[in-house]
Amino acid sequence: MKDKKSAKLNLQHKQHQNGHLSPSTFAKLLDLEASWDKDQLGDVLHWIRQIVALICGLLWGAVPLVGGIWLVAFLLISSGIVYGYYAIILKVDEEEFGGHGSLLQEGLFASVTLFLLAWTLVYSLAHF
Q1: Spans of biased composition, class Basic residues (predicted)?
Q2: pTM greater than 0.85
Q3: In which domain, by residue range, is 36 found?
Q4: Count of structural domains, the chain
Q5: Is 67 within the bounds of a domain?
Q6: Which of 21, 94, 10, 15 is nearest to 51 (CA)?
Q7: In a domain, 35, yes or no
Q8: Residue 68 lies in a domain
Q9: Running DSSP on this structure, what letter comes out for residue 64?
Q10: Structural domain contains residue 97
Q11: Average pLDDT of the chain?
C-alpha cells in the first residue's frame, strides 16, 4: 500500500513538472558547474526558443518587416542563441545529448509557429 502511494506521488510530481521548468532548473540556468539531464536541457532550450520567437515576432510585426528573409533571420538568431547557450555558456558535451542536431531541434517547430503567429497578428493589427 505504501509503495502504491509513493509511486502515485512520484507520478503526480512528474506530471506537475511535465512541460514546466522546476525551480531547481531555474537555479541551474547560469550555473556553469551544474549537471544536466537530457530532459532538463531540452526543456530549457525549448523555452529559450519560445521566448526568442515571441520577442522576434512582436518586433518584426511592429516594425513592420515583410518577406521570407526575416523568417530566415529569425531561424538564424534563434539557433545562434540556443547554440551559444549550450555550447559556449554551459559547455555541455553535445554528444551526450544526441549531438548538435538534436539540441538545435529542441522547440524549433513550436517556435516557428509562435513566431509566425505573433508576427502576423501584430503586423495585421498595427498596420491595417
Answers
A1: 7-17
A2: no
A3: 29-127
A4: 1
A5: yes
A6: 21
A7: yes
A8: yes
A9: T
A10: yes
A11: 83
